[in-house]
Amino acid sequence: MNASLPPEPGIRVSLAELIEMRHRVREVQLFSTPSQRSPLIGLHHSKLRGRGVDFDQVRVYQAGDDVRTIDWRVTARTQEPHTKLFHEERERPIFIMVEQSRRLFFGSGLMFKSVLAAQAASLIGWAALGHNDRVGGLVFGDNEHYEIKPRRSKQSLLQLLNRLVRVNQSLNTEGEPDRDAFGIALRRAREVSRPGSLVIVICDERALSESAEQQLSLLSRHCDLLLLPVSDPLDHALPAAGLLRFAERGAQLELDTLNFDLRQTYRAQAEARIARWELLAQKLRVLLMPLSTQSEMVEQLREYLNPQNSGKGR
């Protein structure tokens, strides 16, 4: 598929569409404001271990202070216990990993999964830029990946979005995918992401493998993670639609979707994938926000982050 072909709404994205996404940032409280705190900032303060914070000042130790923050030099000099105080880093790197592979080039809902992933990456990018954070990321497909170094500039975000659009518009159903593309991309993210970064992972729900789990676990030791696995209703349940025939690169498959046992097995496999993501998020103590092509993306994020406002108009 030539990247110069015109975008098809819901099937392929355009740069103009992703730029327009900046106007929807105000609908979702993605990052904290002076009057309202978001789950994405200070994602889990107890886990930060000094990451993403700046030294502020030293004061006399008080009951309840963390003994690990005692300033032993000042304590020795003054003969009185002193502790270091820190404040949250105002500007932190936001590293957006977004998948654009052929397994995402599918959808039975409002849009293709690849489009949903691109929209989510764009919205988060614009929100981060508006929050004065440095924005960069990694766009990965079946056999390629492109990196954008986090910077606090619109040009950096536009560079990421432009690369995202180019990969999205080149998606098709041909070619042989790299089965460990996700794991390879995560390994690269570990190499280039700065400790204390917030790494946003937007990928196919089916991408989670043992290799990917290991890389996510290693990445979570130095960075905060937000996981957004993307799915389609047909990933979770087969319709009772009779005999379905599938063909790919000369291979053919027939499924009798009226077979109850087949539908139950298919559903059980989907439930196992969902449970695997949930277990991983609990283990790593990170935020998990699955997205589906069945619903509008901004509405889903608003439901997760601002449930008290999810039913209100724009």
Any overview of this molecule?
- It holds the Pfam family DUF58.
- This is DUF58 domain-containing protein.
- InterPro entries: DUF58.
- There is one protein chain.
- The protein is an alpha/beta fold.
- Among the domains are: 15-34 and 91-231 and 293-305, Rossmann fold; 54-88, no CATH class.
- 34% of the residues lie in helices and 21% in strands.
- The protein contains nine helices and eleven strands.
- The protein has helices at 15-20, 72-78, 113-130, 154-169, 181-192, 210-220, 233-236, 260-284, 297-305; strands spanning 53-60, 82-88, 93-99, 134-140, 145-151, 198-204, 224-231, 243-248, 251-256, 287-288, 291-292.
- The strands form three sheets. Strands 3, 4, 5, 6, 7, 10 and 11 form a seven-stranded mixed beta sheet that branches. A two-stranded antiparallel ribbon has the order 1-2.
- A hairpin with a 4-residue loop joins strand 4 and strand 5 (145-151).
- Helix 3 (113-130) packs antiparallel against helix 4.
- The radius of gyration is 22 Å and the shape is elongated.
- It starts with 14 loop residues before the first helix and ends in a 9-residue tail after the last helix.
- Mean pLDDT is 84; it is low at 41-53 and 310-314.
